[in-house]
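Much of the work behind modern protein science is quiet bookkeeping, done one molecule at a time. The protein below has been through that process, and both of its lines are reproduced in full.


***
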Amino acid sequence: MKKRKSTPPGHVAEQIVRGMIRTLGRKLKNTSLTPRETLALLREQRKLAKQLEASTRARIENDREDEMNRNIAAMEAARSGNEPATQPKDEMHDGA
């Protein structure tokens, strides 16, 4: 039996919001909606998209801060003569 990976806390919420946005997109394809219903769905979709963007931006910022702290700790360990636990990473080439 394969063990499931533990996902970061914000990632699960992002997956849920993405699913909700997709669901709203499918509902918008319904041609029997009134203009008022269509606008309400579009507003909801826009609100969810902004929420997803803010969540993603916060997660990226936290990841950068964590990486910076790891790099500082690795450099301080190297300076003190101890072997660093992890090698410093180049933040400009992290694939983001």
About this structure: Helices lie at 9-28, 35-79. The longest helix spans residues 35-79. The radius of gyration is 21 Å.
